[in-house]
Structure formats: structure tokens, C-alpha cells
DNA sequence: GTGGTCTAGACCACA
DNA sequence: GTGGTCTAGACCACA
């Protein structure tokens, strides 16, 4: 059983939202290496979205090494472990954080407040793991 | 004189990039309240993009209170100060940070490494201010 | 089927007129929450204006919460209900009414005549709802 | 001495704002028939706007019969009384009120609340007259 | 000269 | 097919 809420009006594409939700599930340990994910068809039906959309999210996750897609066994969280933080990824994150942090600075947050915010979100993500498992 | 580099190949729209660059300029104090920005047409020509693209970025910045657009005096960094961190903004930032932090956690970063990264980006932004002013 | 007449010669921009017409349609219950609106391109063709002009009206309506724009389902009158009368809106309306009422006072209308006029327009708007639905 | 505040960032043109402020002054009896107004040049300097802007406002007011412009005596509030409410004006006001009232209805105001709002603005305008005269 | 508006037309991501 | 983005180019109100 999956508890994923998508925002169909969001400016961010549904397949990206879906990808992110699954990654959040892994981060919060609601999804663990080896855990199965629904088939494209089933998941699409559950979420009320197009099959292509789920497929696109899965492809992204596979590309980055978060999941494995087997013809027979279906889709599972990568049992061999998660991808690592390489230079490429770090550069990307920096590029993404830069405008967010800049705007916060403009709006008057100092370094301490910023750190506190990050920490809160960090713990919020971990707390997600106290719920029932996603699958 | 403006030193802003846009990535025309990027997946993120030019007008968003431009908006962000200007906000980074403010965060790094290269742009200060009251400072003038180029007219949409001049800026467009300088950047090699269309007038409407610049205008779209300006409209976003105006909406959020970062700049003022005077029919006469042209465009200036809001001399009355920057917008504040309200609940709405905070909720937004949290929503934006969540997937980034989640992925970092998945990839094995612990809280300390994450904090260090944030701090580095934070200081990188401030260092931008050591260059000559943007205008 | 949509019956909206725009005045291309008017001093008020087409996209503002269009925005207002749609709001009048909602006020008169010709358009109800959940009702679909034409796609930007279809509507533009029907109205004989450019796609961007319709889009600008839609963006305004979306910003204020009157409509939702789904990447998939297209455009609909906000099914979650309309925006409310908040302090911000009230202040705006007052600011808009002030010159209109002032001029009427100058021209010799007393409070009763003014009230009667408002009431007439109010009922005129509601009468619009007796026509067939807009869609 | 004139106490008129213009919003240079407003979307409404300065000359329209100025026109409206003067009409509000008349409605609140801070300005009475026969009262002098500053010369274009003086007024422009006092307000910090272009002469053309003041002139344009004056031309509008003269056109509608709110003021008289004499080459020698200067500018005065029309001593022969104000323009009246003719059919043309009424039609115009209705057209202006329609979108405002429609939006209020959409946002959930009923007729009574609307009437109360109008009445408040009406009285606010009259209260303006308790201040010192504008000239 | 400046921003505001509008058009015609194009390509693309998304679903 | 839908909205999102971008361009080139035009006219106008405003100051």
C-alpha cells in the first residue's frame, strides 16, 4: 500500500514529484534496499496518473541507481545499496542550493537561522520513517 | 556594468535563471537597495535574449518585492528593503529543500556533512560581494 | 459554447477585460467551480485574439485563485471554491472605489442614489445567470 | 499648501491619480468652487513630477468641467458648479463598477456587506473634509 | 526613452 | 493536444 500524494497543479512535473517522493521514502527508511515497488501499471492506477509518467519516474530512479528494474521480479529498491555522493552530484546540489540560500539571505535569514531550518527539514524527513512502511 | 552569465542550454528557463542571478547579486551585496537595473531592452541586448524574457524575470522580482518598476525612473532594487521571511515563504523553502536533502541522505551524507555543504555555499554567495559592484 | 464580447478599442487591456468577463461569469453562476474553460489556443481563436493574451488573463486568474491550470486536464474554475475577502483585497477595493464614489459625489449623487446604483449593478450581474450556461 | 500623495509605482498613471486626488478633494469639500489650484509649474515642482503630467490631469479635469483654466487668473475649481450625472457618465460608472462588484460577489460578499463597504468608503471620503483645506 | 501590450509563429516538455 | 517558453517585431501610453 502506497501513501504518496502528488500535486497535479504544481509547476513541477508529476514524474519529478513521484521520483522525489520515492527518494524521500528511501531517506526516511520507509523504503529499504530490496523492497519491492508496484509495477508501472499498478502504480499508475493507484496514483491516478498516466503509465508513461510512472515509467519516466522509474527510468530516472534506475538511471541514478536508486532502483533496479527486472523483467520478472519487477521493480525493487536497489539491494546493492544507494548511489554515492560523487563530484558531479555535489556540483549539482550546490547549483540547486545557491538560489534558495541566496533568497533566504535576501529576506534576512542569518547563517544560524538557515542552519536551524535545514536541521528541521532533515529531522522531518527522518521522522517520516516512524510511519508504517510504504509498501 | 553587469556580469551575469546565463546557460541557454539549461533545463531551467532563462527568466528563472535571470531572476535567481539578480537575487544572488542582492544576497552578495553586489546589488543594493536603490541600485538601478538596466531597462528590459538594454538588458536583453546585453544578455543576448529577448526583451520579453527579461521582462518576465523583472515581473517575478517585482511581485516578490525585490525590485520596483517605475514608469519613469526605470527599474531599481527595492529601496524600501527586501521582502521578509513569512510563513508562506518558509513553507515553500521547506518544500524545495526536502527532496534535495532527502537525496543527499540517501546517498550517504550525514547531518554534519550536509551542514558543512550548506555553510560552504552560504560563504560562496557572500564572497561574490568581493568583486566590483554589478552596476 | 462561450459568449464573451471584448472591446478591442477599449483603453483597458484585452487580457484585463477577459479576466473580468470570466469573473463576471463566475459571479453570475454561468461558470461554476469545476467547470472547464477552453484551452488558451482554442479560446484565442474563438475570441480572435492572440494565445498570449488569453494566457495572460489565465495567469492572473490562477494567481488570484479563481481558476486552476492543470498540465493535463486543462483549465477549470477552481473546484475548491473561490478566494476569500481578505484584508488585502478589501484595501484594494476601497482604493478602487474611492475615486468612483468621489466623482459621483462631486456630480451631485447622494448616498441613497449611489446605493440604488450599486444595487442595480449587483442585480444586473446576477441576472446574467439566467442565460444558458457559458460552457 | 497641498497634501497629495502619489504612488509613483502604481500601475495607474500619475496624471490619473492626480486627477482623482483633486476630485476627492472636491468631494470632501477640501476644495470648493472658486478655490484656486497651483499653476502647472508650481504644482509639478511641489509633487516632484513632470509638468506635462500635471497639465494632462488639468486638461482632463477641465474637459469634464471640474476646473476652469484662465490665462491670467490661473486654475480654479469651477465656480459655476460641478458637472452633473448624465446618461453617459452613468453608463461609464456602471461599466467600472461591474467587475469590482463581480469579484466581490465571487469572493463571497453578499449584498449587505457590499452596501456596508460602499457606505464606509462614502463616509471616509466625507471625513477627508474635516482636515485643513487643501490650498 | 521606458515599460505595457499585442501579435505571429516556433519548439518543447508533459501527459 | 496542452501549457510553457522564447523570439522578433510592432504600436502606444507615459514621463
Automatic annotation (TrEMBL), chains A, B, C, D:
<dbReference type="GO" id="GO:0003700">
    <property type="term" value="F:DNA-binding transcription factor activity"/>
</dbReference>
<keyword id="KW-0805">Transcription regulation</keyword>
<keyword id="KW-0804">Transcription</keyword>
<keyword id="KW-0238">DNA-binding</keyword>
<dbReference type="InterPro" id="IPR000524">
    <property type="entry name" value="Tscrpt_reg_HTH_GntR"/>
</dbReference>
<dbReference type="InterPro" id="IPR036388">
    <property type="entry name" value="WH-like_DNA-bd_sf"/>
</dbReference>
<feature type="domain" description="HTH gntR-type">
    <location>
        <begin position="12"/>
        <end position="80"/>
    </location>
</feature>
<dbReference type="Pfam" id="PF00392">
    <property type="entry name" value="GntR"/>
</dbReference>
<dbReference type="GO" id="GO:0003677">
    <property type="term" value="F:DNA binding"/>
</dbReference>
<dbReference type="InterPro" id="IPR036390">
    <property type="entry name" value="WH_DNA-bd_sf"/>
</dbReference>
<protein>
    <submittedName>
        <fullName>GntR family transcriptional regulator</fullName>
    </submittedName>
</protein>
Amino acid at each position: 500500500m502506497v501513501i504518496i500524494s502528488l500535486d497535479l497543479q504544481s509547476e513541477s512535473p508529476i514524474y519529478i514529484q513521484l521520483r522525489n517522493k520515492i527518494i524521500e521514502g528511501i531517506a526516511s527508511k520507509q523504503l529499504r534496499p530490496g523492497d519491492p515497488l508496484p509495477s508501472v501499471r499498478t502504480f499508475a492506477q493507484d496514483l491516478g496518473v498516466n503509465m508513461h509518467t510512472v515509467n519516466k519516474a522509474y527510468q530516472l530512479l534506475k538511471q541514478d541507481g536508486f532502483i533496479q528494474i527486472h523483467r520478472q521480479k519487477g521493480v525493487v529498491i536497489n539491494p546493492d545499496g544507494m548511489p554515492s555522493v560523487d563530484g558531479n552530484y555535489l556540483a549539482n546540489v550546490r547549483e540547486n542550493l545557491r538560489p534558495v540560500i541566496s533568497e533566504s539571505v535576501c529576506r534576512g535569514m542569518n547563517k544560524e537561522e538557515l542552519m536551524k531550518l535545514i536541521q528541521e527539514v532533515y529531522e522531518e524527513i527522518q521522522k517520516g520513517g516512524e510511519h508504517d512502511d510504504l509498501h
